[in-house]
Amino acid sequence: MRCFRIVSQEYASPEFLLTGEGASEEGGRWNTIGGLALYTAPTYEVAAAEKGYYSIRSNVEFYLANKTHDPFRDLIARVGLKIATLEVSDDLQLLDLTNQEILSDLLRQAGLPPKTVQEGRQSPFKMIGWTQALGEFLSTQPDVHGLRVMSARSNNGEAIVLYPNRYDVGKVQILRVDDIVLSATDITGTPFKKGRTPDPARIFVFYGGTERLVAVLHFPIV
């Protein structure tokens, strides 16, 4: 299976890219602090929406609150990142949490209250808590290597969460690492320029010689 992972320049080295250490530092939607996890997506558009929310959208709000401080503009306009194309072995067992019946069964096994697939997309994820608790439980179960979940930032696909400490090295291969640029857009849908008002619902993506707008969800309605 082909997956994409977008990271900051400093985390793009082969030694770091597949460790899952970045997510372990602060915790993620499907892992607790200290738990290794790789957040990827089957398409670069979904990967861009996920990364764009945290690296661009949150800074847009900060920029709007501090318009007179132009250095903050650099946090939202044409941010250079790296995108890794990964080959994920078909041998890895991914639990499909986009399936309500499977999700409900696993929640019961983990001793957690009933939840819906859509509730797993709520924000901020640290306030709902149960996704991290379920991820921590599942990451310790035999023959579980990762999860297939609904993207919290895109309506156009799924996200793939991998637990590197649960599978052998080599099961996930780096095929290539390329440049990708994410930028806030203004209300006309063009790349953000000084003096314009950013559009919080979209980002501009420059990748592989193409340019396109990608929608970014903020607080999904459940």
Question: How does this structure look, described?
Answer:
This protein is α+β, with helices and mostly antiparallel strands. It has helices at 14-17, 21-26, 44-65, 100-110, 125-128, 130-138; strands spanning 2-7, 38-40, 79-88, 94-96, 146-150, 158-162, 172-186, 198-207, 210-215. The protein has one domain. It contains 6 helices and 9 strands, in the order E-H-H-E-H-E-E-H-H-H-E-E-E-E-E. Strands 1-3-7-8-9 form a 5-stranded antiparallel sheet. A hairpin with a 7-residue loop joins strand 5 and strand 6 (158-162). 35% of the residues are buried.
List keywords for this structure.
25% helix, alpha+beta, five-stranded antiparallel β-sheet, globular, 28% strand
Order of helices and strands: EHHEHEEHHHEEEEE
Counting structural domains, the number is 1
User: Low-confidence parts lasting 5 or more residues at pLDDT below 50?
Assistant: none
Radius of gyration: 18 Å
Please sum up the structure shown.
This protein has 222 residues and is α+β, with helices and mostly antiparallel strands. The protein is built from 6 helices and 9 strands, in the order βααβαββαααβββββ. It starts with a strand and ends in a 7-residue tail after the last strand.
SSE layout:
Blueprint: E1 2-7, H1 14-17, H2 21-26, E2 38-40, H3 44-65, E3 79-88, E4 94-96, H4 100-110, H5 125-128, H6 130-138, E5 146-150, E6 158-162, E7 172-186, E8 198-207, E9 210-215
Parallel strand pairs: 4-5
Antiparallel strand pairs: 1-3, 2-6, 3-7, 5-6, 7-8, 8-9
